[in-house]
Amino acid sequence: MTEDDDPTDEIADIEARIEALAEEAERSRKFILASKAAIAGGVVLLLVAMLGLFGTGVTSALGSIALLLGGIVSLGSNVSTLRQTEAFISTAEARRSALIGEIDLRVVRDAPVKLM
Question: What pLDDT was estimated at residue 51?
């Protein structure tokens, strides 16, 4: 194997990309959680407004509907982003595995044992 055929640099680049994608996936998960909280808050506020508790009026009902719809839109967007990111991670991991499989590894025998 020549220096040009050495895939270690490409493997390192792929691992960096996988790490960046994992961070992006984690951000999407956080936004999904926040979206679910916004939906729940919108539902609770809408129920409070509909039942007339705490002297709420039309403005709070409209605000709760906006919160509910915003949460739904944000949830849908972030779920699709998370799915795409996970698909990219899977593709990158498959490519990394293929590159590692191409490396001509050799077994090291009779290596000295290090005593601690």
Answer: 83
